[in-house]
Give the backbone structure.
Amino acid sequence: MAAETFARVAEAKVSPVLDAGCGTGLVGVELATRGFPVVDGLDISPEMLGEARAKGVYRDLVEADMTKPLTALATDAYAGVISVGTLVIIALAQQPPHLVVAD
């Protein structure tokens, strides 16, 4: 659904697109089937990047931590960026821990 929405709002199949937090590559597959010619992926997990690589739709895959400066990527390298679920996880991970005590 996210790739479908991205395809509707992106101007003329922008390229290249960065799939930030690409995981196993499911979003990359959806973007490719919707006509996006160049998709790169970024993820913190080398295991997930291996699964994404096996999908055969990414031009390049980069291992990086999105909570740190993304020095592995060139400035202004992408015409569009999509991130499905990843930014929520990062935001939650950066929240202070809370202790809940039940009566």
Summary: The CA atoms of residues 17 and 103 lie 50 Å apart. The beta strands are 17-20, 39-43, 60-63, 80-82. Residues 99-103 have pLDDT under 50 and may be disordered. The two ends are 42 Å apart (CA to CA).
